[in-house]
Amino acid sequence: MSSALPAVQDYSQLALDLLARAKQRGATEADVMVVDGHNLSVQVRLSAVDRLTKAREKRLGLRVFFGKRSASTSTSDFSKSSLDQLVADTCALAQAVVEDPISGLPAAYATDRPDLDLYDATELGTDEHIALAKRAEAAALSADPRVSNSEGADFNSSDGHVLMANSHGFVGDYRSSSFSMSVSPVATDPSTGGMQRDSWYAIQRAYARLESPESVGKEAARRTLRRLGARKVPTCKAPVIFDQEMAGSLMGNLCGAVSGHALYKGASFLIGQLGSKIAPETVTVYDDGRMPRGFGSRPFDGDGLPTRKTPVVKRGILKNYLLDTYSGRKLGMASTGNASRSVGESPSVGPTNFYLAPGGSAPEEIIRSVKRGLYVTELIGFGINMVTGDYSRGAAGFWIENGELAYPVEEITIAGNLKRMLLDIEMIGSDLEFRGRIASPTVKIAEMTIAGH
Amino acid sequence: MSIQSDTKLASTALTQFGLTEQEVQHTLGVVKVRDVDYADLYFESCLSESVSMEEGIVKRAVKSVSQGAGVRATAGEKTGFAYSDELTRRDLEIAASTARYIAQSPKGERPVAVTHCAKPTRDLYPAETPISEVATKDRVELLNLIDAEARRYDPRIKNVMASFNTEYKIVMVATTDGRMVGDVQPLSRLQVTCIAEENGNRQMGTWGGGGRMAFSYYHEQERYKHYAREAARQAILNLSAVDAPAGVMPVVLGGGWPGILLHEAIGHGLEADFNRRKTSAFSSLLGKRVAADACTIVDDGTLPFRRGSLNMDDEGTPTSRTVLIKRGILRGYITDTLNARLMGIPLTGNGRRESFQSIPLPRMTNTFMLAGESDPQDIIRSVKHGLYAVSFGGGQVDITNGKFVFSASEAYLIENGQITKPVKGATLIGSGPEVLTKVSMVGHDLKLDEGIGTCGKDGQSVPVGVGLPTIRIDEITVGGTRG
Q1: Could you give the CA distance from residue A388 to residue A418 in angstroms, rounded to a whole number?
Q2: Quick one: angle between helices B89-99 and B21-31, nearest 10?
Q3: What pLDDT was estimated at residue B10?
Q4: B223-238 and B136-153 helices cross at what angle (nearest 10)?
Q5: Which residues in A lie closer than 8 A to residue B99 (C-beta atoms)?
């Protein structure tokens, strides 16, 4: 297991000391989270180094309970005097807030320690970072003469170590790493002088699994070039296909709506829908906290509970909400191990690896099924009302004529309501790939309103 | 703006960070090798506190302390950057050695003398009691008052979520040109969200405000009540909202926060980094018409107590008022030291960073359009069929093609010159270099927003302000559902 690796500083004694000191001050329960890590990030632009950032950081968070009152604090200063102050401040703060009858640590905690293969010890030097970023950018710049400029390419590596301990005796830790690169070329339309930018990226827990810089650069150039000459389309209602990345953002919206915190606050369009049909039978959605090498995988959650695989939607029926201890108690249900926590905050709910299970259609087949409609490759803005599900966002992509991508489009919006959009999922691609915690194959929605000229 | 020598302030800041002047000079010496043009150290100590309430209970109280230093070296277009949350001589030395990596020069390590200790000559945010010294119980009490006020507004208000966040930041910048300057930057924000419910129809309303003022601001003129009532009013109003229209139409924007239009459509595209790299839709438009004659737009970081204001930016440059567009003609860019130097254009004091962990970038402060001459009522009356939008959620822009969006959270139909039904939120989309050429009327009612804006760029968030008089845009695409 990862904590056996020697390079990690052991903060468990520090954490246990803090728990003991909180108890001495009268705290009835407490937990501590310590996060530390390194990162190295290099950005090159037009083949020269543009920016180089290197750092090591660490942070400690303390949460205490005085009966049903609680408070959280955090600091980056681990000196004894600072931590003494932290314990005193946290205890004082907790006694200043109001009692919340259901607050408190969970009764149980994770006892197993699965190896989720989240850490790769590969160390790349600064020069290697620079070389990799340069290769990725060069591949984009040389792909086509219309690739005229660049917002740069970057290569990043980071590693992190998370330790949690609580006053019920839980102590757990895990290490993780990440290697990523991205390229953002700019292309100019030779006839109009109009510019377009797009980007592509790759990310992996293990360096050896990362795609080649050349393939990332080429894909970035392809995505940028295909946008040249984009225009508006007339306002209409039509089928809309979301590509992998954009369908992922749709799953992100679903994920927000099944979050226990949104539900108990009355801030979700899926309130009271548990057990109901919210999508067609072809739709099955999971949240899997223990997917090997997953970007959202972890052995335990922000409450110290074991993570697991939760069916969220099964054959169109909403089966489970995503819950942490607190929202679970609020809704009278058990936690699903989805407590997500940044150091020094009380837990909220977050996805682990949240995805729409793949369907049977190749993406090309989905495009072919549309006589006139939109293929969306980019969405901008925040026009989503999670309380009502109302959805209206800026979009760019391609107009489909007779089953083929006819021309690029931009400066349009797509609008609908998420409740309706989920029910209107007509086809699901076979192309599920993970490049983050939330992923989806290509998705076709039967009809949305497109506003253009 | 002149800077006066103030060694007392500098020594106070040094004490705060547990540093000596020798350590600062030594670190500058380590980073300032032959091929480094310029380097700076940014020391920051930030105390953040947050209390929040929901379901009538102040459940959450959070306090966090963060302290550290960022070391930056620039050589030509290259920037090397490292940061450390430890401020020992050894940690600073490691950070400085990392930052200078971009300039492959032999070691220098001769200390750089700091000869000019200063603080900004003005204080845009004086306070008798620092915001960090407001007792938790007073913060809790404020939220309780808000909860009561919002629920009193209408029995259909079913939940009230409110939060009060404060930040107290002490910063010090030391540069290889021998300057050392410090500032203390308070910031607070009060945010209210209400959920209204009627016959299974649930709607949300949000309001808030803040800035760099003292805590008493929220009680003066009963501002907290205003925030609570506005959030409640908006939630209730949305219960009767009809579907928004879709397509191109005239849009009237109300004063204040709708100024987010300027931030997205114009502001980002005028940040110097994108223009130096020639990746902005505005890159070749300096001196050209990008707006109607009635439009003059400024970025002004010098307005007292505003959320986007600063005595000095995060590179130690005093903030200023920069004219971006004058009577429709593009006049200037927003700059930081690196881009001003490389482009040979004026330094505007807009080098900002989220924290010691991030590098400075050219960023906006308070961006607004100056008042025009039209009566706001006449502007509305001038529209036969269109949209009147008075409150917005967020916005976003693609710098390179200039397409921007911003999403209305409170809007109404205009029919035959009259404001009629409220409509559901809709996103507006347009093209930055074009949208302001379609502004045909500018009201005399310039308003600045109430102090809630946060701008994101390259993963860094900084507080900003916007402002706008009532304006008429002859045509823009409205992304509703009613085609």
Answers
A1: 8
A2: 20
A3: 60
A4: 40
A5: 52
Q: Which two tokens stand for residue A70?
A: 């609680």
Residues of chain A with CATH 3.30.2290.10: 2-224
Q: For B241-279, give one letter per residue: b (16+ CB within 10 A) or e.
A: bebbbbbbbbbbbbbbbbbbbbbbbbbbbbbbbbbbbeb
Q: Where in chain B is the domain with CATH 3.30.2290.10?
A: 3-238
User: What is the nearest CA distance from B265 to chain A, expressed in angstroms?
Assistant: 13
Fold of A2-224: PmbA/TldD fold (3.30.2290)
For CA atoms B13, B17, B23, B24, the dihedral sign is: negative
The token pair that represents B392 in the structure block: 């917005």
Cα A4 → chain centroid: 28
pLDDT at B11: 65
Spatial distance between the Cα atoms of A143 and A138, rounded to a whole number of angstroms: 8
> pLDDT of A165-181, one tens digit each?
999 999 999 999 999 99
Kind plus residue range of the DSSP H or E element containing B410:
strand B403-415
d(CA B133, CA B110): 41
CA of A360 vs chain B CAs: smallest distance (Å): 31
- Quickly tell me which residue has 């660049």 as its tokens: A150
Tell me the two tokens of residue B287: 């001196």
* CATH code matching the domain that covers B3-238, chosen among 3.20.20.150, 1.20.58.1560, 3.30.2290.10, 3.30.720.120: 3.30.2290.10
Answer whether B71's CB lies under 8 Å from B143's CB: no
Chain A interface mutation, best of B285, B400, B406, B409, highest count of A Cβ atoms under 10 Å: B400
CB B176 within 8 A of CB B162: no
Between CA B188 and CA B126 the distance in angstroms is: 14
B263 by DSSP, 3-state: which? helix
Tell me the DSSP string of B209-233: EEESS-GGGGTGGGHHHHHHHHHHH
Residue B120 CB partners (closer than 8 Å, separation 6+): B1, B3, B181, B183, B311, B312, B318
- Cβ neighbour number for residue A234 with a 10 Å cutoff: 12
CA distance A260 to A167: 25
Distance (Å, whole) CA A237 – CA A372: 10
Residue A1's pLDDT is what? Answer: 34
Q: Which of A59, A97, A345 sits opposite B59 (nearest CB)?
A: A97
Confidence of residue B110 (pLDDT cuts 50, 70, 90): confident
Q: What is the pTM of this model?
A: 0.94
In sequence order, the 6+-apart residues with CB closer than 8 A to the CB of A145 are none
* A406 Cβ under 8 Å from any chain B Cβ: no
Question: What are the chain A neighbours of B58 within 8 Å (beta carbons)?
Answer: 97-98
Q: Are A278 and A270 in contact (CB under 8 A)?
A: yes
3-state secondary structure of A265: coil
Q: A405 and A375 in contact (C-beta within 8 Å)? A: yes
Q: Whole-angstrom Cα distance, residue B188 to residue B48?
A: 10
Mean pLDDT of B29-50: 92
Phi then psi for A243, rounded to 5 degrees?
A: -70, 175
Q: Closest approach of chain A CAs to the CA of B81, in angstroms?
A: 5
Q: What is the pLDDT of residue B112?
A: 83
Each residue of A432-443: b (16+ CB within 10 Å) or e? bebbbbbbbbbb
Spatial separation of the C-alpha atoms in residues B446 and B440, rounded to whole Å: 16
The gap from C-alpha B102 to its chain's centroid, in whole angstroms, comes to 31
Q: How far is B314 from chain A (nearest CA, A)?
A: 18
Which residue does chain A place closest to B276, by CA atoms? Answer: A151
